[in-house]
Amino acid sequence: MQLPLFGSRDMSFCKAQQLYRIAEMATARRWGVSLKHVMDEFDVEERTARRMLRKFEDLFPGFETTDDDDRRRWWTLTDAPYIQHRVLRENELAALDLAIRRAARDGADGEARALEVARDRLVASYSRPMTQGAMGYSEILLLANGFASRPGPTRKVPEDYLNLLFTSFRRPTMVEIVYQGARDPEPRKRLVEPHAVIVGTRYYLIARDVDADRQYRQFRFDRIHEMYGTVHAFERDPDFDVESYSAQAFGSFFSDAEQGPVRWRFSPGAASEARDFVFHPTQELTDLEDGSLLVEFTASGWLEMAWHLVQWGNAVEVLDPPELRDMLEQVRRGEVDILP
Q1: Which of 253, 134, 140 is nearest to 194 (CA)?
Q2: pLDDT, tens digit, for every residue of 289-326?
Q3: Where residue 6 falls among pLDDT bands split at 50, 70, 90?
């Protein structure tokens, strides 16, 4: 297979990647790629986009152009064997796997199935050696995002923190954080063994504190002042399961002091709506004689439960625990001074 050659010696690797990306778009999309697509994809002005398309034409002489009714020009590429056999990138497969997991957890079973079929077809089109690295990275990224983001608002997280952690997950290596806990008067350094990231209203790093008792702890990202990578390798706990760990909580936070059985009763008028919700992975639903719905599970995180239940108004009653019932009433009255 003959690969296209670059026309100038000073073409940077980054620019080459951009031109091959245009070729991918021109090959994969039904109508090809337009000037507007190039401008949006690379966040460039029209003049720069036109120059990129001219370079694309020089690099891939097998292109074709068509003009639509609005006098917009489209570039298509049908004979580009190198584009059709490019290596599957690690982050691309990982992103697809994360999308499948999120769709499944959001109850979009049809969408999850369609994405899964597309993923399998994509992976099957590559040779095994070409996909092994991407699949390994994807597994690590899924571990890091073991508890996929729930719908709703979430706090911003520094992207460099996540990138550093993903690098650490791959090794695995320890990270050093400058952290200020709720009871710490000042931030202090901690050397930790990262095992997962839990995403919810807040992001939490799940890690073992090397200098303490080596128990798993949750470190809130908004309380991490600094984070550094290290060269100190550690052995990941083979018995750690992020799914089981995160299932201890209703949302992204849990406390041993709050861990216990939870029982909610939804009124007959709200029962059909509540039946469609997955409040917790371990939930059990029981239809009562009066048409109401009983929801039972075991978890902690009373405040996050109260924040959710207040949306149901008087259509829900907390049977257990009594502490959650009292907290829900405080939230309804606006007496809780804890911010999200």
Answers
A1: 140
A2: 999 999 999 888 888 888 889 889 899 999 999 999 98
A3: very low
Q: Of how many residues is the chain composed?
A: 340
Phi, psi of 213 (to 5 degrees): -95, 5
- How far, in Å, are 217, 263, 291 from residue 294 at the CA level? 32, 7, 10
Under DSSP, the state recorded for 178 is E
The whole-angstrom separation of Cα 43 and Cα 24 is: 17
Q: Rounded to an integer, what distance in angstroms lies between the CA atom of residue 236 and that of residue 239?
A: 9
Q: How far apart are CA 27 and CA 33, in angstroms?
A: 9
DSSP H/E element including 130:
helix 128-144
Whole-angstrom distance, CA of residue 161 vs CA of residue 42: 24
How far is residue 292's CA from residue 270's CA, in Å, rounded to a whole number?
8
Q: Count each helix (H run) and each strand (E run) in the chain, helices first.
A: 12, 12
Q: How would you class 213 by CB atoms within 10 Å of its CB: exposed for 0-12, middle for 13-18, buried for 19 or more? A: exposed
Tokens standing for 34? 């337009």
| CA-closest candidate to residue 17, choices 70, 59, 68, 77 | 59
C-alpha to C-alpha distance for 27 and 80, rounded to whole angstroms: 8
Q: Burial level of 63, CB count in 10 A (0-12/13-18/19+)? A: buried
pLDDT surpasses 70 at 5: no
Which residue in this structure is represented by tokens 């026309």? Answer: 7
* Whole-angstrom distance, CA of residue 16 vs CA of residue 92: 19
pTM, full prediction: 0.52
| E strand or H helix at 161 | helix 159-170
CB 204 within 8 A of CB 162: no
